[in-house]
Amino acid sequence: MLKLAVLVSGGGTNLQAIIDAVADGRITNAKIRAVISNNRNAYALERAKKAGIPACCITPKDYEDREAFYDALLAELKRSEADLVVLAGCLVVIPEKIVEQYENRIINIHPSLIPSFCGKDYYGLKVHEGVLARGVKVTGATVHFVDKGTDTGPIILQKAVEVRPGDTPKILQQRVMEEAEWVIMPKAIDLIANGKIKVAGGTVTEIQ
Q1: What is the DSSP letter of 206?
Q2: Catalytically annotated residue among 33, 47, 110, 144
Q3: Which of 17, 31, 173, 192 is most buried when burial is the number of CB atoms within 10 A of its CB?
């Protein structure tokens, strides 16, 4: 049974998609052991509570410096005995010390088709604003392993989403979540939980 720790910062819609997928059998052989937020007001914590999942807040505001915060976060991840760390709308930049401890065991969902509209300045609505400003016709979402770069880790799954005339960043954000993020994040977790993912040479292959 793959043990998951899910890191969140806001409303927790991707967390809810994972909770629902575990409940209805789209994710098998996995269990959420902990939900951790850097924001004590995140609604994701309430979602976890309603689902009976242990949840806590570890915020930089409670520590004297960033390193102390990272140490506390790492300690909580170890306490959860997580096999896989899932970044589900997590706005914390994961430090190298945690990436090294969980090599190819941290996954993230990004709301574009990497390598487009990703990297340091692309997060939240800024991604969709960039998509619309550039006038691309297709966007989407990507699940990838986290490495020491920003959105540079091995890609696990991608799903395309049409950009439609009249889209606003918020409308496009919602469509990308519904049609891509909430679909491929649970699928990626299920593949990993059932030993169907192999990472070699910086790329992912799916084992049939």
Answers
A1: E
A2: 110
A3: 192
- Tens of pLDDT, residues 53-74: 999 999 999 999 999 999 999 9
Nearest to 37 by CA among 20, 18, 54, 17: 54
Cβ-based neighbour number of residue 80 at 10 Å: 20
Query: H-helix or E-strand containing 80?
Result: helix 66-80
Check whether 207 has a pLDDT greater than 80: no
Are the C-beta atoms of 87 and 106 separated by less than 8 Å?
Answer: yes
DSSP 135-195: T-SEEEEEEEE--SSSS-SPEEEEEEEE--TT--HHHHHHHHIIIIIHHHHHHHHHHHHTT
Query: What pLDDT, on the 0 to 100 scale, is given for residue 201?
Result: 87
In the three-class reduction of DSSP (H, G, I as helix; E, B as strand; rest coil), residue 56 is classed as strand
List CB contacts of 19: < 8 A, sequence separation 6 or more: 32, 47, 51, 53
Q: Is 3 left (phi over 0), alpha (psi -120 to 50) or beta?
A: beta
Q: Using CA of residue 66, residue 68, residue 73, residue 77, what is the dihedral sign?
A: positive
pLDDT tens digit sequence for 111-166: 999 999 999 889 889 999 999 999 999 999 999 999 999 999 999 999 999 999 99
144 tagged catalytic:
no
